[in-house]
């Protein structure tokens, strides 16, 4: 037994022990912001996200300089890594896409966003990745078409293919940036019986239409006569589905229609018909990214309906360097890029830590 006043002999610190103490949990908690979904949404509106993305482009960021996204197939879905450096900010989103999660009552998209200091490269914050994605995805779409909305004089008429979270979030984001309420919003569903509570399926019996139709929109079935009627009136068409074939015919929409195509993001899938791409001005985030991932673009080029030289860049549209023709359709094909998460996350962190 050692005496009560015994002291252990002093021994040199093992290699790296000081570093391990510096990286302890208490250091992490005191030096990092941990932002959950509620906090993110409390400091950032959809319009704020739109403005954050626009500001990054106006300030000179070129999406062509963005870091590469990595998509890894895994047993139950996909693992996505999306790193980026914008201005003085550095960040990476780590997300999983679980294909079986809806059957378990879980979200398809889950993950986190990790931010770093631009000078020291030390971690500075962790954000809820799904919440960040929910904000930035429709914001990207709206940034790409906002200059084209000037061609419409009155309240907008929207048609939205897809009744999931992306469909409704696109409506909410557009509503947050336009100056007056929509004339009408119509969702298109291939399975109306699966529509959630935030949209209402419009049957032939008017008494079945709920009160939320007024605030959110009505729903028609894909392929129905009602769909043909609303498409001919639509100012803006949002395609937010995993479809692999065109959702509508090219002659179903007006010559000045504005189309967002964001649901399909593989080179073999498309939501927009090639004939519409042929007569439209087509905007993409980045040419090389579009040629790798944007099936609407890849397939239209393969069919001879479009050429690489026809593509307009999102940054040029936002900066006013691209001339838009209001007599032609405009199609914005977006697949999502890492810089977009970081541009929004930087503003979220700044506001949350004031």
From TrEMBL:
Region (Disordered): 1-21
Source taxon at top rank: Bacteria
Gene Ontology CC: cytoplasm
One Pfam entry name: OCD_Mu_crystall
Gene3D superfamilies recorded: NAD(P)-binding Rossmann-like Domain, ornithine cyclodeaminase, domain 1
Protein name: Ornithine cyclodeaminase family protein
